[in-house]
């Protein structure tokens, strides 16, 4: 490309034109006069090729440039060389090399074969020198997860090189979204697009990062190429085996004399950083430096700290870094036709690309097993593509190592992965296969052959690339033995005087000799081929003039989207708005199907075994979508999170209106709900950024089932929305906005704990309400009560409750979903008897309220003599209308009708169940536990509730032992624990007299007695029913319940204490009960700490 600029200098003598008026000076200064001035126009020469032979094209243009600027004319007219490249230089076949002649020397290009990695001619070396290994891997991860990526540099070529390299390293995947490596100034409004993109923005070298206003940054990866700096989006998962991956790349780079941390000398800001010491660079974590200072050779690097650490890591695998044979450092015995520097570029390119390709080959070695082939023909499948599942993600992820899941669960949701699988489905035959897919599948087949003994075994062990030598050898052979040589340039049939040489000027080419070639040549340009455009400025130091020209043109306004007509605006943005709404609809449906599981499948909304992608990934994806919606069409960007900025503006406006009394009572109540959620998030010190706060607020709103309502309230301030957003913004499209809010409303159909389960270390205020019996002298209670609350994430420890205080608030670290409450007292005072109906505990941030029924006495001589009880709670289903009432405490509810766990003489005091009902209760309790363990771990509910709840295993076994139980004395309460203690005494006596019938029986009896003794010796005052509950839980944990039932059924004590009709005396029913309880043996039951506290057995 030839470019030459000229600006006429205004000059005047002391006696001449300078005597003119100032007006005439202004008219003539920096103006063009056609009668006296010569205007030079920039000229650009482009080569458009069907394949990206960047090196060859660059050499052609460089030699053309040299011919124009050389003092001596070229051997032939320029038309001869251009004619030759247009018509006489063929495209090299796959797997072959080609030599053709430039103006001053030969040019070689080589094309990979169909079983090699696709052609890529850009210098990978430059990218690693500019950014460093760590930053390249982070940028690569962002690209794979389809974040918005903005490259920033003063050099157009750097923007192009980085963009092309990152997309090439994705093999076998392809970037599916907006790709603009060099974004023209007139199209800056494209950065407002709420879709993934990879764009390059030219820097003038004057403005720093802080002055660059970007529409949205929540999901943006910003790469300042010139300053070796990368700004990553929040919550970026780590690429699998990142440490080993970086180490493998670093070894290759060091073999070529490239430091892994990048070469700062290739940066424009190198002069500013000369004063920095190497240790300063190492500590500069934002740049992703590994360690050390830039070095130029492998010999020097041997003493570097980086190498020492890498060697230490490698030694564990039995490999020494000293012994690594870097074949790239010599040409061996072959005579390479290109120069040595160019050959090294080829070698480094292929070695780095093979390492990246190997990562995907290893991670997706068995991907074909999980591809879901459609039942219908291709046309029908393509028509219904959006409703079809093409990959069994849940099964694939279940086979992966745990460290891979954060990255893979998000990568499987990307468009590039979906397109890759679609391509696989569409290409049934080997002949139909896409070339990229064919190469990848052949590599996967080799991996499977190597791992034939354990084809599905997935481990996180890192496997290095083994295909480098083979790939490098192929290139070396092509460059050593040229397969094709093109016709040399020759004189054309030109008229005399044509093709005249003029130093420093690119001539006007003769179109008559270039218009037709020796034969009709048709060049097919495919959509995915990228064109090469290289610009070279002519001599003359014109940088100063170019800068002046830019300054002169700075007053000219570039066309912006906001200046266009309404019809053009609507046409330009409608696809964005439509796409956002469609994405919202698909995301909400997908999340609901995932959450509802089999129920959704039965309703026809999904396929069994297809769901299962991590819930957290889907919610993070929804947060990203909301940020993109709120970033679309912003007037002025304020802060990195557009959603959080909108919330701040809204609440500030509402605060002013509240103080002025302009809000209705209903509006004020709804605003209070929104404000409470906002205030809670602001008070969480662990969340530092606006993006993090916005995502936490979304999660909290979802958990409270208020997301749609909150966003509707936020958008109800139309004046604020108009002030913040342009007319074409998504949030100002009324119909789409209403549909969007309607889709979000569907989340209220399911329960999410996406806030509670993620922010596990934050402090949460809990409110406790204890409801005693009003009829039985609760106000006379004199003891000092205490309470301990347990959840899935921890417990509070013992909290002392002030006497006669039944309501209190305390703060502690997030307990997760609440499971049990331990409540008791110290038995002090004259009236140490307390009948507690139930306990309510409310999470003041999420609003979740748990009810723990009791209905039992706590006191010596009352009920079963217990001074403390373990209560199992359930989450109350929230009523949205009730939740809107601004009430500080949970609403009072009726006392539950609890089944009393003691036996009295009066038959009316307990429900009578027949043996069939008892068997049914046992079956349902055991079936509930079996179902619990057959669910995926992250979908399981509370095991404590299944064991100790109202319909749990403990309650069902109580019914077994209460059936046919004799009452020996009038007005005397007899408990199941009394029977168990007598049985223990019997077996202990039997053993002392050495009268145990058989060894198995003896072992069971000893275990039974050991557990009874341990529970009786516990320092806790849990009462007889509490002890029975503990015994059942321990028996279930250790798989002993069925042994104990058999033992007790044959015990003589049973005959004394049970009627003949009792279930425990019916051998048929007992055998049936034993078989049911035996099904629990295959499960590893882990008990909550509160259930077995004080027991060491």
Counted beta strands:
20
Spatial ordering of strands, largest sheet: 5-6-4-7-8
Radius of gyration: 39 Å
Assembly state: single chain
Average pLDDT score? 76
Point out poorly predicted stretches.
1-23, 267-303, 320-332, 453-457, 520-565, 598-613, 880-910
First-residue to last-residue Cα separation: 84 Å
Residues in helices, as a percent range: 40-55%
Number of helical regions: 39
The major beta sheet can be summarized as: 5 strands, mixed
Q: Which percent band covers the strand fraction? A: 5-15%
Structural class: alpha/beta
User: How does the overall form come out from the CA principal axes?
Assistant: elongated
Keywords: Guanine-nucleotide releasing factor, Membrane, Phosphoprotein, Repeat
Pfam families: dDENN (PF03455), DENN (PF02141), PLAT (PF01477), RUN (PF02759)
Protein name: DENN domain containing 5A
Domain RUN: 613-760, 944-1092
């Amino acid at each position: 490309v030839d470019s030459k600029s000229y600006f006429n200098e205004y000059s005047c003598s002391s006696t001449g034109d300078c005597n003119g008026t100032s007006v005439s000076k202004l008219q003539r200064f920096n103006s063009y006069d056609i009668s006296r001035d010569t205007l030079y126009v920039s000229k650009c020469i482009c080569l458009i090729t069907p394949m990206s032979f960047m090196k060859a094209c660059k050499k052609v243009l460089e030699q053309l440039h040299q011919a124009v600027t050389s003092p001596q004319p070229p051997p032939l007219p320029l038309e001869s060389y251009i004619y030759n490249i247009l018509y006489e230089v063929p495209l090299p076949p796959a797997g072959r090399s080609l030599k053709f002649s430039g103006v001053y020397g030969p040019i070689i290009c080589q094309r990979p074969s169909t079983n090699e990695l696709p052609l890529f001619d850009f210098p990978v070396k430059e990218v690693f020198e500019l950014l460093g290994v760590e930053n390249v891997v982070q940028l690569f991860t962002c690209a794979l997860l389809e974040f918005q990526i903005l490259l920033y540099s003063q050099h157009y070529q750097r923007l192009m090189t980085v963009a092309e390299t990152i997309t090439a390293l994705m093999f076998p995947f392809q970037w599916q979204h907006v790709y603009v490596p060099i974004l023209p100034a007139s199209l800056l409004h494209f950065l407002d697009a709420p879709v993934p993109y990879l764009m390059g923005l030219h820097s003038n070298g004057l403005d720093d990062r802080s002055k660059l206003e970007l529409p949205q940054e929540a999901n943006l990866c910003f790469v300042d190429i010139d300053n070796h700096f990368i700004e990553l989006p929040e919550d970026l998962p780590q690429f699998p085996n990142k440490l080993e991956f970086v180490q493998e790349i670093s070894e290759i780079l060091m073999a070529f004399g490239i430091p892994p941390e990048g070469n700062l000398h290739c940066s424009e800001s190198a002069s500013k950083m000369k004063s920095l010491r190497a240790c300063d660079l190492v500590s500069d974590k934002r740049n992703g430096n590994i360690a050390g200072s830039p070095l130029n050779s492998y010999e020097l690097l041997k003493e570097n700290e980086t190498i020492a650490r890498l060697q230490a890591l490698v030694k564990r695998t039995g490999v020494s870094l000293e012994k690594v044979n870097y074949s790239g450092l010599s040409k061996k015995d072959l005579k390479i036709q290109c120069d040595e520097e160019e050959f090294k570029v080829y070698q480094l390119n292929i070695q780095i690309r093979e390492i990246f390709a190997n990562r995907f080959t290893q991670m997706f070695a068995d991907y074909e097993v999980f591809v879901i082939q459609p039942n219908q023909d291709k046309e029908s499948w393509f028509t219904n593509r959006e409703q079809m599942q093409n990959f069994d993600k849940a099964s694939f992820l279940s086979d992966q190592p745990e460290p891979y899941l954060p990255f893979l669960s998000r990568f499987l949701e990307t468009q590039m992965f979906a397109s890759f699988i679609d391509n696989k489905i569409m290409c049934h035959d080997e002949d139909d296969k896409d070339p990229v897919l064919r190469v990848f599948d052949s590599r996967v087949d080799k991996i499977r052959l190597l791992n034939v003994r354990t084809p599905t075994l997935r481990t996180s062990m890192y496997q290095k690339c083994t295909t480098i030598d083979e790939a490098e050898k192929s290139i070396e052979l092509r460059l050593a033995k040229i397969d094709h040589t093109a016709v040399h340039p020759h004189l054309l049939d030109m008229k005399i005087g044509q093709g005249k040489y003029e130093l420093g000027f690119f001539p006007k080419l003769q179109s008559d000799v270039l218009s037709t070639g020796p034969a009709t040549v048709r060049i097919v340009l495919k959509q995915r081929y990228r064109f090469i455009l290289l610009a070279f400025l002519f001599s003359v130091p014109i940088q100063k003039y170019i800068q002046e020209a830019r300054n002169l043109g700075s007053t000219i306004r570039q066309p912006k989207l906001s200046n266009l007509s309404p019809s053009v605006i609507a046409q330009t943005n409608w696809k964005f708005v439509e796409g956002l709404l469609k994405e919202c609809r698909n995301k909400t449906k997908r999340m609901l199907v995932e959450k509802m599981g089999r129920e959704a499948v039965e309703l026809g909304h999904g396929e069994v075994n297809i769901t299962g992608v991590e819930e957290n990934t889907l919610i993070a994806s929804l947060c990203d979508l909301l940020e993109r919606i709120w970033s679309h069409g912003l007037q002025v960007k304020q802060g990195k999170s557009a959603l959080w900025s909108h919330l701040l503006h809204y609440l500030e406006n509402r605060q002013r209106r509240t103080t002025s009394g302009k809000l209705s009572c209903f509006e004020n109540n709804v605003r209070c709900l929104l404000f409470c959620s906002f205030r809670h998030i602001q008070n969480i010190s662990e969340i530092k950024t606006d993006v993090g706060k916005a995502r936490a607020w979304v999660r909290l709103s979802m958990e409270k089932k208020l997301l749609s309502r909150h966003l509707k309230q936020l958008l109800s301030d139309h004046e604020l929305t108009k002030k913040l957003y342009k007319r074409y913004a998504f949030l100002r499209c009324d119909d789409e906005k209403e549909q969007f809010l309607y889709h979000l409303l569907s989340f209220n159909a399911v329960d999410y704990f996406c806030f509670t389960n993620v922010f596990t270390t934050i402090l949460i205020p809990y409110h406790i309400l204890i409801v005693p019996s009003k009829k039985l002298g609760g106000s006379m209670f004199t003891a000092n009560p205490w309470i301990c609350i347990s959840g899935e994430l921890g417990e509070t420890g013992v909290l002392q409750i002030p006497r006669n205080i039944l309501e209190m608030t305390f703060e502690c670290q997030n307990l997760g979903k609440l499971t049990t409450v331990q409540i008791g007292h110290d038995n002090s005072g004259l009236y140490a008897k307390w009948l507690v109906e139930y306990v309510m505990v409310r999470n003041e941030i999420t609003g979740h309220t748990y009810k723990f029924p009791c209905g039992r006495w706590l006191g010596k001589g009352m009920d079963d003599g217990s001074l403390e009880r373990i209560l199992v709670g359930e989450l109350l289903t929230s009523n949205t209308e009730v939740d809107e009432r601004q009430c500080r405490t949970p609403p009072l509810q009726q006392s539950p009708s609890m089944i009393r766990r003691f036996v009295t003489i009066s038959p009316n005091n307990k429900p009578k169940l027949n043996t069939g009902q008892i068997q049914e209760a046992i079956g349902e309790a055991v079936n509930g536990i079996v179902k619990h363990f057959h669910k995926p771990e992250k979908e399981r509910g509370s095991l404590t509730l299944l064991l100790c709840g109202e319909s749990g295993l403990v309650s069902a076994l109580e019914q077994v032992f209460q059936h046919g139980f004799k009452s020996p004395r009038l007005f005397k309460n007899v408990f199941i624990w009394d029977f168990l203690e007598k049985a223990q005494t019997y077996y202990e006596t039997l053993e002392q007299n050495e009268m145990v019938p058989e060894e198995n029986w003896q072992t069971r009896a000893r275990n039974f007695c050991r557990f009874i003794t341990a529970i009786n010796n516990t320092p806790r005052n849990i009462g007889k029913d509490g002890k029975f509950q503990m015994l059942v839980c321990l028996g279930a944990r250790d798989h002993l319940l069925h042994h104990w039932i058999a033992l007790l059924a044959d015990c003589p004590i049973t005959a004394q204490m049970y009627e003949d009709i009792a279930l425990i005396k019916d051998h048929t029913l007992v055998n049936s009960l034993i078989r049911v309880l035996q099904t629990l043996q295959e499960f590893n039951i882990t008990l909550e700490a509160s259930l077995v506290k004080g027991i060491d057995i």
